[in-house]
Description:
The chain is about 45% helix and about 15% strand. The protein is α+β, with helices and mostly antiparallel strands and about 375 residues long. The longest helix is centred in the C-terminal third of the chain and has 22 residues, at about 305-325.
Amino acid sequence: xxxxxxxxVLRQYDFGGQVLRCEPCGSGHINETYCVTCIxxxxxxxxxxxxxxxxxxxxxxxxxxxxxxxxTSYLHRRLERGGGDTERGTMNLLPTRTGAAWCTDTGGxxxxxxxxxxxxxxxxxxxxxxxxxxxxxxxxxxQRLLAEYPAETLHETIPNFHNTAARxxxxxxxxxxxxxxxxxxxxxxxxxxxxxxxxxxxLVRMQQDGLLxxxxxxxxxxxxxxxLDAETGRGLCVVDLDTVMPGLAVNDFGDSxxxxxxxxxxxxxDLSKVEMDLGLFEIFAKGFLEGCGGSLTENEIRAxxxxxxxxxxxxxxxxxxxxxxxDRYFRIHREGQNLDRARTQFxxxxxxxxxxxxxxxxxxxxxxxxxxxxx
Length: 375
């Protein structure tokens, strides 16, 4: 992005002071991010995050930004009423000079500005169990604060994102088409997925039957989407709200387990290293339920182990689908990486099945403790 376009965007905002510098920051692969530093009238500096949104990934910018603006303003009001930290407890959009949530440059680029969350860090890996607990607490708190938000009013920015039945339909089409002639070499993986085809629809059917409520969900609940206080390690707020839309709270829990409770990298080639850490599973469940503060139903709590398994299975199916299709969706850095990713997910699923009784018992134990603490 050239400096002229950035200056054009900066002029559309009132930062409350003179802009000193605007520098690239962050390591995200989707949006283009800059840190804007300003001098406040009374002295001192204030920072903002300037982001150019990726229109190739997010085609409905209007819907996406309406979701982000409405959810962040709602969270701000909730924190304000409860005496929370409104500058660090949620992302805060800075409107343009005309009051819009985002703007465009003359080249068609779409931009937005957030207040920078000072004194905070994010982690790419669990460094100690407390980190995972604080992440869980933040995601649970996100659910609690938004428990009464009318989820049905949000735009579905990625249709059928966690519709596991639809994911399997797409998978079966890819197997049948075999566009790259790869299906013959992955028959064990195809068989593993298809053996769980019916079970994969469990949560979808529960929602259709009214057993699981529609909620505001984050849909990308990785460790690095929670800001932690740099000094205390305490979870501050959830960030990266581009995929916030209607969904199931249990899927947010399950995706966190899939990513954070694994003992190996997502593309590990040595499957003997891949397990679901039962201790981390229980730690995350503890933080998540404490953060939710009693906002989940009994059905949701009981469905947490199933969500962990099905989000992992769904992700494996998505990786395998992309491998069969020629690696068109997930970025790869080496041949066969998506196949390795699929295999790690399936190994996690198999390990969860071995630990199924222990996972259910952990949820019962943690839920009982959380309910006692609420009384």
